[in-house]
């Protein structure tokens, strides 16, 4: 029987058709369903609707959804071979989401929105507005029983459009400084810490991976930057999630190898890019392989040859099939021991944890700093990873001694013991645990700002990275030499115009503001002699006055203090009126003042003219000066330059700019009459299409 969801719309039980061979969706279902309790996975549901000729919109669900336990999963748009194939994938993806939701008791059920655009369309010609309107209609009819967010070929802009029409969108809309991809990345980091540093607890047994006070306490910062010293990890896939994971791991002292199908993306400061090495990456001897790329990454052949202790990452279904996973988890006689594989339902749940906060405690979500939410994800994934590892270790049956085999028991135990959604636990956790959490990368930067970071911090990783980059020059679209306020803003503007652009900023100093930017008073005024300079100054003033909006940081460190500017240049009243007209032409208010006007505005100022003296005799000449005239320019002011630089560094790194300290440029390389790259003082080379 159909499951009534709302008036005029209903889900129906979904049965997978028998077919020759193994489809991707059937493989997914066969690998995910065993992780779920039997009663949860036995009756998948599907809602299907043709929203345009040949275009079908559907929602797959692991089980029945309701207002009490709404479905939650992203919106995927793809051209499938058939509607049936799309339906199978919707249900399989929903089951994958169910594992994450049950693992962390998010208060939601596993679901997924999938659109099959049909054989007569392609993605480039899709009428997105028509599709989004159809999805909104479906969500409104479900009346709070389904929430969605971004997935393949749906964007944050799409979610913002939908959020204006209904309340059923979870995509960090209420806090634009939070990045769900970063939340996922920090969850992966928590899982890796649980595997590599299970001792990371305090006297009461509580995890210490929230990195509290690391930006303020040098001792804490040093501890964090050495947490993974001596460990080697391989991050496969350096996109929105993998790049953050790699930076965090190298900031904790690990030797981090990176690889990506787009080689440039794996050029990450402090990491070793092996994208173009001939040796098979899976044969590299590392403590952990961290899959953050595609599904089906590890084949049966690779599983036999991997030389790692752990496989922990963000990628959904990193194994090509169940056989590959079983081989990896089995000891090979005369070869390597069994690999510890932690299912992605545990490790890759940062985004759904943040979704739960957004859904169940909107005030806490809106007021949260990103690092607080990321620390919450990191700590919860750390704890859950340790819990499932302990269950596997204590299992008596040999076949049950893997984290994957323990998932049904873990989910059942979570459902029985945790009735409060994890989203409602964030605010009290923050109040009781935190006052200033940061990321490992920020902890490392805090040491740089104290000028105590050096060669001893990560000797092995830095030495190898330097040797590797010298042998194989790194590449970028644009290299910017100098990481002060100008270099940071140029990088920020370039990424804003083209997010895919590979931008590298090279700063000689070991900390921000070692050059003129750090010494600047940060004062901004509009009046200049040239029109172009005035336009540039006004653009800067607008940015500083709207600093949060400009940087995309909800609570930036820097803020604009409006003071105005008093111009006393010895001009006559007529000359100052001409100056006033020039400012007015650019939309700037000003006031021409005589001596009494200046005295009224600045009572402590003595407006009497300073007497002129004869340089020969030292006597007053008795010269009578013209009447004082001044001009007061409204809207001027200043902000702290050091705080401004810190905000801009956060902003550019959030956008994916590769910013490097202690990277002085010794010369610009040329060829064919143009700049082709730079050589650094350590001998390494970065090739680039443009050099600034």
TrEMBL record:
GO terms for molecular function: oxidoreductase activity, acting on the CH-NH2 group of donors, NAD or NADP as acceptor. Pfam families: DAO, ELFV_dehydrog. Residues 1-20 are annotated as: Disordered. Residues 213-399 form the Glutamate/phenylalanine/leucine/valine/L-tryptophan dehydrogenase C-terminal domain. SMART domains: ELFV_dehydrog. InterPro entries: Aminoacid_DH-like_N_sf, FAD-dep_OxRdtase, FAD/NAD-bd_sf, Glu/Leu/Phe/Val/Trp_DH_C, Glu/Phe/Leu/Val/Trp_DH_bac/arc, NAD(P)-bd_dom_sf. GO terms for biological process: amino acid metabolic process. SUPFAM superfamilies: Aminoacid dehydrogenase-like, N-terminal domain, FAD/NAD(P)-binding domain, NAD(P)-binding Rossmann-fold domains. This is Glutamate/phenylalanine/leucine/valine/L-tryptophan dehydrogenase C-terminal domain-containing protein.
